[in-house]
Amino acid sequence: MKSWLSLAAAAVFVLAAGTASAQDTLKIGTEGAYPPYNATDASGKLVGFEIDLANALCERVQMKCEIVQQDWDGMIPALLNKRFDGIMAGMSVTEERLKQINFSKPYSTTPAWFVGAKDGLLKDAKTLDDIKAALKGKSVGVQRSTIHQNFLEQKIPGIDVRLYDTQDDLNLDLQNGRIDAGLADSLGWKDFLASDAGKGFTHFGPGLTGKDDPIFGLGVGIGLRKEDTALKDKLDKALDAMNADGSLTKLSEKWFGFDTSIK
Fold first, then answer.
1. pLDDT band at 29 (very low <50, low <70, confident <90, very high)
2. Res. 98: pLDDT tops 80
3. All residues at 6 or more sequence positions from 33 whose CB lies less than 8 Å from its CB, including other chains
4. d(CA 200, CA 123)
5. What is the four-CA torsion angle of 52, 55, 56, 61, rounded to 10 degrees?
6. Which of 42, 59, 142, 215 has the fewest CB atoms within 10 Å, counting from its CB?
7. Which residue ranges does the record assign to the Solute-binding protein family 3/N-terminal domain (predicted)?
């Protein structure tokens, strides 16, 4: 009897330890294809602002960080199916997404830019109305399932919207003249515009944010399941602490060259 009880107690201990271990790991989903928010380097390693931020947050909430790579299209379904616990993939907090998931406090915000050839059809565009007029009947590329796709489809009638799986695919078609212009976050354009391939291109018109149209959201935050309220509270407190001590600003300046944090 004593031996059976000892075995049972040991089994309970192992089960409890396993449960604790699972709870102490925070799995973060990211795309690895949206620099400088997140990217994959030449060795296949995930790098970027959100990778560093995820590790910093895990340290502050005393959890082990596990970064999971996930295609953008399947990001929210994978979160809801519990493949990971949070999304850090340059995902903006919007009313539409809040119908499905919750978010941490926003940790970054940057404007959206229209980009085209320097001597192309947008060369004289100064305002959003100028851009709308110039793009009528033209092709505009955008990454699918983004706020930028929503904006083009809902706010700019009469254009041919071309959808891409990644920003790199969009850049390639723009470079090769297969589309007339593109819309993406300004930071999503950063590497392309600084490259040899992008030297003949620039951004036109105003930078667009949630102040211009609510479609652009409140900034980028960590996507979370609605039921995970305790985790949201921990991450919000950690983000507040990083804002207060300046470490969020330092990470932002390291990866973007300027402060994108939301105070």
1. very high
2. yes
3. 39, 40, 72, 166, 167, 168
4. 12
5. 160
6. 42
7. 25-259
Spatial distance between the Cα atoms of 66 and 196, rounded to a whole number of angstroms: 35
Instruction: Give me the pLDDT at residue 208, please.
Output: 94
- Write down the mean pLDDT value for the chain: 91
Domain boundaries, the chain: 26-109+217-256, 112-208
Query: Of 109, 94, 91, 108, which Cα lies nearest the Cα of 29?
Result: 91
SS3 sequence of the chain: CHHHHHHHHHHHHHHHHHHHHHHCEEEEEECCCECCCEEECCCCCEECHHHHHHHHHHHHCCCEEEEEECCHHHHHHHHHCCCCCEECCCCECCCCHHHCCEECCCCECCCEEEEEECCCCCCCCCCHHHHHHHHCCCEEEEECCCHHHHHHHHHCCCCEEEEECCHHHHHHHHHCCCCCEEEEEHHHHHHHHHCCCCCCEEEEEEEECCCCCHHHCCCECCEECCCCHHHHHHHHHHHHHHHHHCHHHHHHHHHHCCCCCCC
Topology annotation, domain 112-208: D-Maltodextrin-Binding Protein; domain 2 (3.40.190)
Q: Does domain 26-109+217-256 have CATH number 3.40.630.30?
A: no
Q: Which residues of 204-235 are buried (b: 16+ CB within 10 A; e: fewer)?
A: bbbebbbeebebbbbbbbbbbbeebeebbebb
Q: What is the mean pLDDT of residues 156-178?
A: 96
